[in-house]
Amino acid sequence: MLFTSTADPQNGSGDSTQSGSDTGQSGSGSDNTQAGSSGPQDTFTHPEQLPSLSLFGDAISHTGLTINTTAGTLAQYVSGTGAPGYWDNISTYGAGIALSQFRPGLVWVVAYNGGVNITTGFGPYNFDQLNQSANARATWNFAKRWQMRLKESYLYSDDPFAPYFSYLSQPTPNNPNPVTYYPQAVIEQNNAEIDLTYQLSAHDVVNFSGTEGFIRYERGGYSALYNSYSYAGAAFYQHEFSARVAAGGGYQLQALDFGHGESRAGTNVFEGFVSYVFNSHVNASVWIGPELTNTKDVVPVFCYQLGCFYEIQHSSAWSVAEGGTFHWKITPSDVVNIQGSRGVSNVGGILGAAYIYVLTGTWGRPLTHQWNLAAGVTYNDSKSISEIVGKQELHSITGTVGVSRKLFNSDAWAFNAYYAFITQNQNYFGYPADISTQGFGMAIRYSWNHGLGR
């Protein structure tokens, strides 16, 4: 599905998003099932792309331990409207541990990475910051036709590229939930997912899922309004018509909370989807359906020395949610993924609930026997529907390109170097109209793996 080589050049973010698990991917370090998103997830593409429900029947019980350490540096240039640009440097030192176990019917992985980011620059921009991430996932075949998947990921970092690296390595276009970028802000985010699949027959599958997540911004006195919380649940049915075609439909409910009740939104999506396998190298899927969005906003009417008068405003609107995916395996190690979507979701907290148009592309391939290349770019166009912030907009382009290779002819040692950028054009009150940062980074990583038992 998604190519794993995208993670290597992204580790230069101080490896704060590395799970340290056997996948070696950044971000969630989990499988590619996008549970709870409002569209056809990997669960609803062709069944040959999914693990069989009897996958672990012949597995041998095994426990593995992974310990890693990373040292990296990032030189970035930050600029914005109304403020002079400046250079600073983030030096990152960290270590992590992961434990995994494989048993008949059950696989689980838990991992933690922690370290420190040392930022040096001009004026007040000199400080140290803890960075840490934790990841857990499990797949459990608890009955003949039932399979459960659990995923949890947590990130705390002031590296501006860390959330975007995580997003690009595991794009979820049907529930993009992009992160708004603030210079020198600490970002804390968490996502939890549960996915339950029941195989009705050889050609029919029912899936139930739920998600929970939050995004918080620290340092800089940002309002609690920018902190956001989201919850979602979904149920879908899929039928395989042939070896090439699968289709189905379902329902998804999403609840968004901004500033602990200052602005809330709920979405209801009914959709149909179809996936098609062109050949062993190319497959695609599309989905579309009506979406009902209800909002509740506590809006200040006017304020004076003793306080403010507020008005509670409600609104309701229908729209169309849609999206699609395209996967092209040019060669076994040369892969292109393109995913796009349009729907109501959370724009990192700043705009409240918003219509989000997202297009993501990733590509990876080996350059030589030792060097690998990976690149990714995301375009985001968001328009607020929340009355608490008015009709505001945010546009952003985020991208990264990097190379990686093994060191000393050993799988334990890895080096990566990358270039990354974030450009945001903002149209909302009280903040710069344009914010951007770009940087060059590199990192060296050592990973020790050992089996504890059989």
Describe the structure.
The chain is mostly beta strands. The chain has one domain: Beta Barrel (Porin), CATH 2.40.160. It has one helix and 18 strands. The chain has an 18-stranded antiparallel barrel. Strand 1 (62-80) and strand 2 form a beta hairpin.
Spatial extent as radius of gyration: 22 Å
The level of helicity is under 10%
- SS summary, helix count: 1
The helix/strand class is mainly beta
List the secondary-structure elements in sequence, H or E.
EEEEEHEEEEEEEEEEEEE
Unreliable spans: 1-60, 167-175
CATH architecture label: Beta Barrel
Look up the CATH topology.
Porin
How many domains comprise the coordinates?
1
Mean pLDDT across all residues, rounded? 78
* Ends distance: 29 Å
Q: Which of globular, elongated, flat, extended, rod-shaped describes the shape?
A: globular
Largest sheet: 18 strands, antiparallel, barrel
- Strand residue content: over 45%
Key structural traits:
globular; Porin; 2% helix; 18-stranded antiparallel barrel; 454 residues; mainly beta
Helices and strands in order:
Blueprint (H helix, E strand, L loop, with lengths): L61 E19 L2 E21 L2 E15 L6 E14 L5 E12 L4 H8 L16 E16 L2 E15 L9 E13 L4 E14 L4 E15 L4 E23 L2 E25 L2 E13 L6 E14 L4 E14 L8 E15 L2 E18 L6 E20 L1
Antiparallel strand pairs: 1-2, 1-18, 2-3, 3-4, 4-5, 5-6, 6-7, 7-8, 8-9, 9-10, 10-11, 11-12, 12-13, 13-14, 14-15, 15-16, 16-17, 17-18
